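Re: weekly structure request thread

Next one in the queue (301 aa):
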Amino acid sequence: MPGPSALSLRGVRKAFGAVQAVDGLDLEVPEGTCVGLLGPNGAGKSTTMRLLTAQSIADDGTIDVLGHALPGESKQARAAMGVVPQQDNLDTTLTVRDNLRVFVRLYRVPRDQRAAAIDRALQIATLTERADTKVDALSGGMRRRLLIARALVHRPRLLLLDEPTVGLDPQVRQELWALIDRLRSEGVSILMSTHYIEEAERLADTVTVMAAGKAVATGPPKDLILEHAGRTVLEVYGPPDHLAVVEEAARVAGHDHRRTGTSVAVLRAEGLGGSIGGHDGHERVANLEDVFVMLTGQEVA
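Done, posted below.
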């Protein structure tokens, strides 16, 4: 039996003029799990995050966060959650510690617990040695860790991460992955929107794939891969005219396929023996990127 939900959206809609940003979205984050919200630009991920923090108000549907109905009980919900925005909004004129001091007050952490709360947040984010450094002297990765520390300073039950590693170097991204994974292991409920397929596949217990404001697939990454891409993908390389022939062979054989630059990826390639229609290729294990492209489209928005 699944446990209670940290947050739940049912039939949520939000339009901006003629643009339907979120269109009948159902989304669930069971307590103590990490759910990845995956989708291309314009899929509705950021709008969903804004709805969960009551920065935007849904046109229709219901939103429940930690037992609080939004937007009516948004203050209570915000007090029990931590939010890491996509855009860095730290006060660069203050030190690391002073940024946290502002937020322990905003979150109404009791006065006699504030120093310990700040020290704990600094330790979690590995910023103790940088506590008295001005924010404008920090690297991009350190600033992102400070954003997470700021969101954790009041021990929230739910953490919203909006593109937490966007624009960061791979090495820094790995550090943040370790931090997010630690929080999940400690029982913090996490909703994480991301563009990075590997990030969702590695960190999320379940993934919801969004396209055009809707949830088009939900489930554990391994289950989604097996359902939509199979176990094996056959990559056939060559010039455009050759790839067009391979695509036609895949279509005739009834295999889903996608063009990936200089290759054609043929899904559910188990049993093809490394070739399709007489065209040899390279077999590899199917992954979440295959699922993502098949479900959200192959064209760049």
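The chain is about 35% helix and 30% strand. The two ends are 39 Å apart (CA to CA).
Next request, please.
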